Amino acid sequence: MNNKYYRYLESIGKSCFKKYFDLFSDEKIPNKLIIDEMHNKEKYTLNSCRTRTYKARWIIRNIDNAPEDIQEFYNSCRKIR
């Protein structure tokens, strides 16, 4: 399961995860709003935006089970804000 965290983070991209961390981590914000925001600002494809959003939210929901270096990266994103 640990490999899933690395694959997902690589798929999202660390810079994207950091940039959109506040949106990804706020469960009150619907996926569609995040997807539209990324699609308009970054010019990613809609499919890419969906993938990044779902994978980022999966990492955040399951962070307690993540490898230590993934947790450290997650914590560094939280401190930036």
Automatic annotation (TrEMBL):
* Tree of life domain: Bacteria
Q: What is this protein called?
A: Uncharacterized protein
* Species this protein is from: Deferribacter autotrophicus
What taxonomic ancestry is recorded?
Bacteria, Pseudomonadati, Deferribacterota, Deferribacteres, Deferribacterales
